[in-house]
Amino acid sequence: MIIKSDPKKDFATIHEIINDASIAYKGVIPSDRWKEPYMTEEELQEQIIEGVEFWNFEENNKILGVMGIQFKNDVTLIRHAYVRTSERQKGIGGKLLRHLIQMSKTPILIGTWASASWAISFYTKNGFKVLPETEKNKLLKNYWNIPERQVETSIVLASVVGNF
């Protein structure tokens, strides 16, 4: 079942899932971008304050996966898509993504690490297209608040290719 997260009640679980699932990036993303924990509690709180709404995939009253959505001006951003390591490859991410896609009334953008081949494959299988480098750079600087080094080592995928 997919339900909207209650940031107060679910905060610790969302934080735990993000840091559990993000271990897949260790040794894959540039070493200067990896840290432990991958996302601090303060960083997660900042994301929520900035308007990221988390949605949970729950089974037997246990949260197995989370995905955020952020409505920014003329686009929708999919943010922080994570499934517990023990629950991967069970369709949870796809169910969450399809749910969030239905909520959007604007083009959807997704940023991820360029070296995270599994994430890129997941999004392309779900109808997203990798955008060209010049468009990627412009979009990351316009819609995300990330360091320049992360811009250099990331890609952007879009549901609708066009001028943003």
UniProtKB/TrEMBL annotation:
SUPFAM superfamilies: Acyl-CoA N-acyltransferases (Nat) (SSF55729). Residues 1-150 form the N-acetyltransferase domain. It holds the Pfam family Acetyltransf_10. InterPro entries: Acyl_CoA_acyltransferase, GNAT_dom. It comes from the Bacteria. Keywords: Transferase. GO terms for molecular function: acyltransferase activity, transferring groups other than amino-acyl groups. CDD domains: NAT_SF. PROSITE patterns: GNAT. This is N-acetyltransferase GCN5.
